[in-house]
Amino acid sequence: MGKNRLLYLSYQDVVDVDLTMPEIIESMEKMFHAKGEGRTEMPPKPGIHPGAGDSFIHAMPASIPDLNSAGIKWVSGFPENPAKGLPYISGLLIFNDVQTGLPLSVMDGVWMTAKRTGAASVISARYLARPESSVMGMLGCGGQGRSHVEALKVLFPLKKVMAYDASEDARNQYAEEISAKFELEVVPVQTPQEAVTGCDIVVTAGPMVRPPHATILPGWLDEGAFASLVDYDSYWQPAAMQETDIFCTDDTNQFRAVQQAGHFKGIPDLQADLGELVTGQKPGRQTPAQRTMTANLGLALDDMAVAPLIYQKAKDKGIGTWLEL
Ligand SMILES: NC(=O)c1ccc[n+]([C@@H]2O[C@H](COP(=O)([O-])OP(=O)(O)OC[C@H]3O[C@@H](n4cnc5c(N)ncnc54)[C@H](O)[C@@H]3O)[C@@H](O)[C@H]2O)c1
User: How many other C-beta atoms can be found within 10 angstroms of the C-beta atom of residue 312?
Assistant: First the structure.
């Protein structure tokens, strides 16, 4: 019997595969359909905490038979890393053969973590935002700030981004880079409120902190606006979340578990999760005036919807290093 091999894909290999945002969104929509119809498997993610403070390493396994996808992402977040010149988030994904269980690939998980989170927000926005939404408010101009503009541009006629970051350098650099890359007007703003009030779509992606800094106050989010909370409940006062007419998440079970761990206190009732929205089991936005919100916490299923595309394209393009098992 010949030796079995797996394809190792470094961060740069994954970037070079050059998967597009529309491809990622399409695959994730298929996954959410399968999830809504009960054809996926995703046990709750266990975590260990060997580092200091809020650091974690999570195991995120999932299976999507419709996409011939199975595997696990092993992802860490160490808040003290940036001060040491190291990335906050790092991780590897193992992609398995669904017929034999053999590992087919080990790939860096950082690129997909950024892209699939933006893609999940835009799938939520398809059901929750007004289709003509053109002004976006971005709070937190890091990796998520970048992938969210890229993702929202796929489905919405974005014209202007109001960009707030606690670091003036970060927001100015972001404005320069994003306006050139996506041919948008990007306005670096000096207060968080300028990136909320007057915007059709608001995304908060600053650091996750406990207790939440809860900077966004009631009365800031316009009628008819949609907000995506990438950084859990860090940015929003409970009373500001209470102003929304529809409050959703990506997976109800995971959301309830995170709530039990102490997040999202005093929020509105959950209306639906993304599987229920995508399959039409529960309605999304019903009137142009409704304020809508999603708190997508990030799913192992998101990663496993993207991994087979990266693996297949890498093989087609001859990217990566084959290693013997
Ligand atoms: N829900 C999910 O699926 C998911 C997935 C990945 C990351 N995240 C979360 O998204 C957030 C952003 O991740 P990232 O990879 O873009 O991080 P990043 O480090 O690349 O960027 C964070 C940015 O926020 C800025 N910032 C700090 N305090 C701020 C404040 N009070 N207001 C506005 N900006 C502030 C920083 O200057 C930095 O530019 C993190 O909280 C991360 O844990 C969520």
Answer: 14
- Tell me, what's the pLDDT at 51? 87
pLDDT tens, position by position, 134-182:
999 999 999 999 999 999 999 999 999 999 999 999 999 999 999 999 9
Point out which residues pair with 69 in neighbouring strands. 64
CB 201 within 8 A of CB 226: yes
Sheet of 321-324, strand order: 47-48, 56-64, 69-77, 89-96, 103-108, 5-9, 321-324
Q: Tell me the torsion sign for CA atoms 306, 309, 312, 316.
A: negative
pTM of the predicted model as reported, rounded to 2 decimal places: 0.96
CA dist., res. 70 & res. 212, Å (int): 35
Distance 237 CA to ligand 1 centre (A): 18
Atom of ligand 1 nearest to the CA of 88: 19
